[in-house]
Automatic annotation (TrEMBL):
One of its GO terms (biological process) is proteolysis. Keywords: ATP-binding, Hydrolase, Membrane, Metal-binding, Metalloprotease, Nucleotide-binding, Protease, Transmembrane, Transmembrane helix, Zinc. The chain crosses the membrane at residues 27-47. This is AAA+ ATPase domain-containing protein.
Amino acid sequence: MIFDAEKDEDTWTHRMRKRLRRLWESNVGKSGVAVVAAFLFTLYLRLRPKPAYLNSKDAPVSLLYQSAPKGVIEKALLSSTGRIVYFLIKQKGWHRSNLTNGMQDNILKALSNTELSTLPESWISRLATPALTALPFVYLAMVYRMLNNSMRDKSFNPLKNKKSFKITFNDVAGIDHVVQEVSEIVSYLKKPSHFEQLGARLPGAILLHGPPGSGKTLIAQAVAGESGVDCFMACSASDFVEMYVGRGAARVRKLFRDLREKAKKHYGRWSGRRKPTAILFLDELDALAKHRSQFNSNDEREQTLNQLLTEMDGFDRDTNEVTVVVMAATNRADVLDPAILRRFERQVYVGYPDAMGRKAILQIHAKKIRHDADIDWNALANGTNGLSGADLRNMVNEAALLAIREDSSTVSQSHLEHAARRVLGTKLQQNTFTR
């Protein structure tokens, strides 16, 4: 192996530059630089050479009056403020005396035959006055910045994508009726002119409800991927539930405002659509939009829900600059408020797949693993009754992990059956997977 010292040094220098750049961009790096700079400045002030008169001894003014007529004072220095006088006595060194108002004239007369000069004002003294003047304004600016940062709400950061997820209907199986329901939305978003000629109106909100793990989030991602919208955002409705009144409503307004701005930014006129399009997906809608009653009141939750209702009512397809489709998912549609249910013009139930659907789902997830060619998918589908799409995905992954644990090169039928028993949580009989 040939060792290239120059190349190795360049690589090390490049790595160090990257690390220093990351350190500087972080708040810790900037704070560390400020601390080091303050330490070096303090060290400079402590170690720099000081004039001899600064090491003078305190002495009463009477000593100056007694020494001046004798001619033993070699030099005298008067501070710029006239409050301190430094005088050098032969063979005794520097002395310092504090002066009061009215004593300056007497000092000048006493030192008339002595070399007397006035000390220039130090840079600290020159900066003291403007610094004290600016200090209240600096304090107010810091308070304003702290309040502004606290109101900015950096904790809320919904998932944003320029062109949505790269998921299509080819990645969805077992819920064909749901795909058929939402395919009209995709067709409208792709070619709105065909629908507008017939006077058809796009459903502005779609509610996907059903048991957990049935594929509600996957459907929303597939709609965004198939339609090629200009902007797709996904977040949980629980992100809007806050302790402080007004915070949730502000988050709702910010979310819809960012959604429209991002759709305008990434709008491509070549797509054939006459205006930008966007999809907003709200997961776990029941966390925000539960049924309201006079006995169970929550001002913050109701204010946030009212703001959401207002934003959803504001989607006028003829005057609004951005076409927005709201898709929401919930496991408990029965607890939703009637006002929010009315806004969802289409409500689609997403249930667990049947045997044919489970087979299709298993085959989709099996494309990502290396498996034997003689896998009996029908037997696996019949033996996994009651499993959701998410459970089937977990089952295929468990089978792959089991094959790795046994140091097998491929996933076999036995691996999948063992994974199915593990996901089901019970020890199934071998004849459950009938071939």
